[in-house]
C-alpha cells in the first residue's frame, strides 16, 4: 500500500498570474476590475454566463496520416468558453475526446452534437459544458480521428486515435497549428494550457493513451471504465471474448463516412488483429497503453482520478488494476471502485460525484486549495448503498490459499484425487447453480459457512494441474458467493435498467441551460436483486497459451501440466454465514460478447469439447483476503 500526497509541482503562482481567483467574502471588486473566478468552500462557483459563452471551432494539425491520402489528418475541435476569457482571463480546459459523436451518441441518453449556421456547436453531449463553463473553464470537445468532422480513419485504439488527441493538447499549449474554416491559423490565446481529459469507455481510454505519451500540459485525466489494453478489449488470455472481426466492426461503428474511404485500413486491421489464434502481437502491442510503444503508464505525468466497475463485462477490471499498479509513485491519484458494470458514476452517485469532480478539477487545473487530497484516496462500494473509504487500492490483505477436496469442500488442507469435466460453452449462472449436483460440464467446491465476514480486495490467482484429451481447452474458473442476499444486479439489461442501475424517475439539472442544451439528465439508482448466489469474479485461459500470449504451444494429450494465471480483480465482501465457491469449468459463454456488448455471441468460442481432468493435489486458488481467518 502506498500513500500518495499532494504534489503541486509549483504551478499555483503561474496560474494566478493569468487568472484572478477571488475568495467568497473578500471585499467587492471595483467597477474596472478584471473578470474573476469565484471560489467558495474550496469550489469554483457558477458566475459566468453559459448563454453568452463564446462558441467556436478549429481544425488542429495532427502528426498522422491515418487514411493514407498523403495529408496529415486535421482534427475537429469544438470549443465553448466564458465570453470573458482572453487577455483579461485565461482559463483551463476540460477536454473530452470521443469517437461516439457520429454513432452511437454519447452517454446513457445517447446525445449528439447540434450545430448552428456557422458550424459552431449549440449542443454539447453530456454535462461538462453546462456545469463547468459557468465556473470559469473552457470545454473542448474533440472528434476522434476518423469520426464526425475529423479527417482520417479510426483505428480501434491504435496510434492515430491517441496522437490526434495529443495534437489538441499540444495546440492548447502553443506547440501545434490549428486553422479556421478559411484556412487561417488560430492560436489558443485564451487558455492557460492546463488541460484535463475526461470520458467513459473508449473516451476514457483516449485520456489514458494521451497521458501515456507524457505530453506536457495534460495535467489530469479522469478515465471512467476505461480501456488500457486493446487486447483485453476482445481477448482473455488467448480466448476470444468478442466476435470475430471486432476491430473492424468497432472502426466501422463509429465512422459514418463512405465505407470505401477506410476499407484498406480495415482490411489491414482484419489481418493484423489475428482473430484466428487470439494471440497477442505487434498490432495489439501498439494498443497497449500500459507498456506499449505509443503510450506507457511510466510516462504519465498527469494526475489520475479513475473509476472502475468490477462487474464490467465490457471493460474488465484488469484494465484498471494492471494499469493502476504501473503508475509512477509520484503521480497523484484517486479512484472509485464499484460493484456496477460499465458505468459512468454521474448516473449512480450524482451529487457526490459532481462535488468530488468539481474539487478535483479545481485543485488540479485551477490550483484551488481545497481538501480533495486530504480525503481518503479510494472509495469502494461493497454493496447497495454501502461505501467505504481507504488509503489505496487494493486494501492491505494477506494471501489465503484454498484447495478443492475430493468431497466437494474447499479448504486449506492438502488434497488428493481427481475430477473431470467437458469444455463446452456454458453460462456462469448455469455453472454456478446447484453446486452439490453432479454436472458433466463443471466441478464445484464450497467452503464451510463463514464464521465472520471476509473481504476480497485485489487479484485472485488460480493454479490447476490438468490433463487434456485434446491439444487444448478453454479453462474457466468462477469464484462464487453462496448465500441469500440483496446485491447489485449487474446482469439485468432492459429498457430501464442496465449495468447495475435503473431509472427511478425525474431529472436533475446540473448546470446552466439553453434552448438547445438543457443540462438536465434522468435520475437513476441501484438496481438490486435478491438471490442465493452471486458470481464474484472469473478467469479464463486458452490452455495452449499458458506459457505465452504471443504464441501457442499445444498440449500433449494425456500429459500433466501445471497452469497458473490471474483471475479478474475484485473488491467484495462475503458476509458471515455465506460460503465461498470455486467452480472449475470450460468456455465461459458470458464472455462471448456480441456487437451490443451482451453475452452469447454466436461467432466466438463454442468450446473445444475436450475432457479436462483435474488433479486436486496440484490445484488451488489464492485469494487476497482482508480477513482470511474467517475461512478455516
Structural features, described:
Helices cover 15% and strands 32% of the residues. Mean pLDDT is 92; it is low at 1-20 and 22-31. The chain is built from 11 helices and 34 strands. The chain has 2 domains: 12-390, Alpha/Beta hydrolase fold, catalytic domain (Rossmann fold), CATH 3.40.50.1820; 398-492 and 527-630, Galactose-binding domain-like (Jelly Rolls, Sandwich), CATH 2.60.120.260. The protein has 632 residues and is of the alpha+beta class. Helix 6 (246-253) packs antiparallel against helix 7 (263-273).
* Residue runs with pLDDT of under 50 for 5 or more positions: 1-20, 22-31
CATH topology of the largest domain: Rossmann fold
Beta-strand share of residues: 25-35%
Number of domains: 2
Tally of individual helices: 11
CA-CA gap between termini: 26 Å
Characterize the biggest β-sheet.
11 strands, mixed
Radius of gyration, in angstroms, nearest whole number: 25 Å
Content-based structural category: alpha+beta
Question: Average pLDDT across residues?
Answer: 92
Number of strands: 34
CATH homolog superfamily of the largest domain: Alpha/Beta hydrolase fold, catalytic domain
CATH class of the largest domain: Alpha Beta
Question: From the coordinates shown, what is the CATH architecture of the largest domain?
Answer: 3-Layer(aba) Sandwich
The dominant shape is globular
Helix content: 10-25%
